[in-house]
């Protein structure tokens, strides 16, 4: 039996098992097919595009952490203990790396597939449902974000910038961050109709990167601005991963986890509803 035939038979079997079940019009259990398709597609794409998203935070670390950091006195962690400037910004750049990997695939790639490649029109004309598409595409963005996070961790750990063994948990934390940004990014992108609207992402992403406690503590801002910044998803990610890398473990970490669980849930719901409205008429 050919590979195509085996895949076809497997798809039919899964669809038959899901037939008649609650939510079968939204999900048939074939989201892994989209993930497999993306894995095959990335092999034919330029590696430089993928690699560029990883090296950007590394360059920031070298320029600011090791360069500018030599001109700046030590900063303190959440408990007032002194740490080097490089150790202070490294976890923030790890969170940024996970965000970058997730957001690139869940926004621009999704926008191209939706409006130019007409990919989702084809996929949703099969037995697959909108939730299959949402989970498949979001999982791909999640994997890219995880790959960036692991790569960045492999850079900063030998440099001594992860002083606590709790830093091991920064990898699953980065996975949660990537999941949140990927799901929410796809939800937002599903409402955009032009390249001009897509550029609104940059208007939001750049200030969030600069002001989310990435390069200096939140305490440098006035109190009214601190409250606004604390609502940013990147600030939540930076605080969570920084606490893990520096060994500042407490109940406060749970609030960051809950934030991203809610973010993931909202992203999945809105993405599924939007795909249903666009392609399941």
- Which H/E pattern describes the elements? HHHEEHHHHHHHHH
> Which overall shape is indicated by the principal axes computed on the Cα atoms?
elongated
What class, by secondary structure content? mainly alpha
Query: How is the largest sheet built, in terms of strand order?
Result: 1-2
What gap, in angstroms, lies between the N and C termini? 36 Å
How much helicity do the residues have?
Answer: over 70%
The tally of strands reads: 2
Number of domains: 1
User: What is the average of the pLDDT values?
Assistant: 81
- Put simply, the count of helices is 12
**For the CA atoms, what is the radius of gyration?**
20 Å
β-sheet strand percentage: under 5%
- The residue ranges in which pLDDT falls below 50 over 5 or more consecutive positions are 1-9
Biggest pleated-sheet summary: 2 strands, antiparallel
Throw out a few tags for this protein.
281 residues, disordered N terminus
Report on the structure:
By secondary structure, the chain is mainly alpha-helical. The protein has one domain (28-279). The protein is 70% helix and 1% strand. The chain has helices at 3-18, 31-43, 47-67, 85-115, 119-123, 130-156, 170-189, 195-198, 200-211, 223-229, 233-245, 252-279, and strands at 75-76, 82-83. The chain has a two-stranded antiparallel ribbon with strand order 1-2. Strand 1 (75-76) and strand 2 (82-83) form a beta hairpin. The longest helix is centred in the middle third of the chain and has 31 residues, at 85-115. The chain is elongated, with a radius of gyration of 20 Å.
